[in-house]
Amino acid sequence: MKFKKKKVTRPIIFIFVRKNSKRIVNKNLKKINNKSLIEITIDQAKKISNVKEILISTDDERIKKIAKKKNCKVIDRPKKLTSDNSYEWLSWKHAIKKVYKQLGYDYIFLCLPVTCPLRKIGDVETGIKKFKKNKPDILLSTTKTKNHPAFNMIEKKNKFYDLYDPTKYFYRSQNAPSIYNIVASFYITTPKYILKSKRMLEGKIDTVIVNSISGIDIDEDYDLKIARFFSNKRNVKS
User: Fold this and answer.
1) pLDDT at 22 over 80
2) Are 44 and 120 in contact (CB under 8 A)?
3) In which region does residue 104 sit, left (phi positive, over 0), alpha (psi from -120 to 50) or beta (all else)?
4) Which architecture characterizes domain 11-140+181-237 according to CATH?
């Protein structure tokens, strides 16, 4: 698929929400300080500079109702893209195609997952500026990690375990190259890259490193408890 190159400046926010979550039932409606995760994410989206469009891709009627109440546009997510095995990259492709007539392809695609409610608006805006300046195919939010596959990560090999990457070995963590965890604070790319790519990480990748609290990703009940704890601490300080 080929596209004409145009200057891409305006960010449009996409929020993807599936109805059936297994580890935490109704996860996207769970509340932190009396606001659901979807409400928190929409309110954060509205604070980002120069954003005029917020689109919610979902199969959940309750989420659609909240989105419309907050003046967001809704994209009906087809059933085939809502299972546990569904690759969200395909939902990104679907959403872009659904709004092509209204928006075209020449904009910055900014995805805000609802599972990262402690993101900082400043980090997102830094990401947008860095994306415009460096022109990668995709920019991710990441956190620094203390783990390294050639230092302190093992995998099962037959009966016993070995370093995940035994071809290299570092006796001190300080000697190991810096590596980073991808976190779900935000993803920044373009519709053109999404449509031409089979997977997210096959192009030029850039990142904004966020702190570990801002990068908390809610996947289990334990994560939700941690997010609530730090959210309360933020409110007390403010």
Assistant:
1) no
2) no
3) left
4) Alpha-Beta Complex (3.90)
